[in-house]
Amino acid sequence: MNMPPMVDILFIALGGALGAAGRYGVSCFFTQLLGPDFPYGTIAVNVLGSFMLGLAIGIGAHHIMLSEQFKMFFVIGFLGAFTTFSTFSLNTVTLFERGDLLQASGYVAVSVIVSIAMLMIGIAITRIGGNL
To answer: Is this model's pTM higher than 0.85 or not?
Structure first.
């Protein structure tokens, strides 16, 4: 099995460290702003991360060729650590186990539908107005 070059691993690791720190910051902000009873921070990072992925994909497809190093840093590293499916899953189960079935259902619906919509909006924005 061939190992990826160390420089690739470093791009991913740096992006991942920044993405994880960003996720923590956003989660803390929303917890302080809106309280700890609902996982607003997780929704925010997943929706924002989906939007940023849409922008990156759209820019790469319609405007400039994104380098492999940028994709490793931003898409795999930063966005991989910034967004969080495992926390989304835990929050869903926690709300369900608390008996908050309506909140759990709303959380799943908003997280999935809005995240997909934001990815599509990010791509659509890059198609507007020609080259960046």
So the answer is: no
